[in-house]
Amino acid sequence: MAASVDIARPSGIDDPIVTVENLRILFPTRDGKDTVKAVDGIDFDVRAGETLGIIGESGSGKTTLGRALVSLIKPTEGRILHRGLDPATLTGAAFRRHRRDYQIVFQDPNAALNPRMTILDSVIEPAEIMKDGDDHTRRDAGLAALARVGLPRDLAERYPHQLSGGQKQRVNIARVLMLRPKVIVCDEVVAALDVSIRGDILNLFADLQREFGLTYVFITHDISVVSHISDRIVVTYLGKLMELGPAEAVVERPLHPYTQALLSAEPVPLPSALRTSRRIVLEGEIPSPVAPPSGCRFRTRCPVAQPRCAAEVPAWREIKPGHRVACHFSTIEGPPQRVPNQQYHAGGE
Ligand SMILES: Nc1ncnc2c1ncn2[C@@H]1O[C@H](COP(=O)(O)OP(=O)(O)OP(=O)(O)O)[C@@H](O)[C@H]1O
Ligand code: SF4
Ligand SMILES: [Mg+2]
Fold first, then answer.
1. What string of DSSP letters covers 72-129?
2. Which residues fall inside 5 Å of ion ligand 3, going by CB?
3. What pLDDT score was predicted for residue 14?
4. 19, 136, 208, 214 - which has most CB atoms within 10 Å?
5. CB of 221 closer than 6 A to ligand 1?
6. All structural domains of the chain
7. Looking at per-residue confidence, does 159 or 58 come out higher?
8. pLDDT digits (tens, 9 = 90+) for 71-107
9. What is residue 228's predicted lDDT score, i.e. its pLDDT?
10. How far is the CA of 217 from the centre of ligand 1 (A)?
11. What is the dihedral of CA 47, 53, 59, 65, to 10 degrees?
């Protein structure tokens, strides 16, 4: 009998369904004289079947990244591979066929719904565009999708303005399900909803993931949401990644000063390990993504910045298996600590 062999695989490549390589997405400023560095050189992967949470403050590039992951925006530099294939190399029908596997649901429940179309017609529309089946089979599939997301049959002939925000978000999920995607990017999908129904929608996402083997990229600025549903969490700041690791480790033992600050600024009760005696509160504005700070982007707000932070961009280091951080001084023990009576701050542009 052959002996079983335990093959240790390098962390981070466990069956990637999306691979992001040195991705940059730049937009021209309004006067056309400069560029907004919305996403500015990032590398990570999304593993098949996982929920990857993305957190970061407003303007850190989360939506831009999410749109790029599903090929709604082209990379300015670098590439995004879907199961090893670069969708930017596809055109016409081949591109459309490929794209159906990578879908996005937005924060605004109205964004994808045509106010003049009935709910059922809206749900069927993506399948019509893809020429799936005929009128009869599409209608049956649409009704089944509405039932699957928990909407009663009589809503099918209504119009979007007759539904609540939560119901409309269920319709958006049904629309996406019609295409039987593999990956769904969820961009702040519960942020616009009443707190009382957020849990129901998150549970629906979890049920659908189990049933259809979906992979989620869950973008949110709500740490309680992301820690609740994610397998891994990636932390963004001003177009860069600061930390990526298993959800529990990132939330309970963050290794990057920015993650630590984000968590301590979070008003929602968090695990007791986070209730340290010295709470760090995130102060100051995020610098402009047109002219981000040199070296480490977080240095102008980092409580433990040192001169090196202005001079050198921190490497994207794996300091524990599967746990990456972009800080010169983080160790496996945690973020760097401020030395008493020493003024480190490397502020300024
Ligand atoms: N089409 C565009 N043209 C110019 N600038 C853009 C465009 N889209 C995004 N940006 C800029 O890129 C940066 C990142 O924006 P993005 O919407 O990706 O951030 P975000 O992390 O999703 O923020 P939020 O949490 O507020 O949704 C911002 O400075 C934004 O103004
Ligand atoms: S210590 Fe330096 S490298 Fe680390 S997060 Fe702060 S500014 Fe960035
Ligand atoms: Mg956004």
1. SS--SEEEEEETTB-GGG--HHHHHHHHTTEEEE-SSTTTT--TTS-HHHHHHHHHHH
2. 62-63
3. 67
4. 214
5. yes
6. 16-256 (3.40.50.300)
7. 159
8. 999 999 999 999 999 999 999 999 999 999 999 999 9
9. 85
10. 17
11. 20
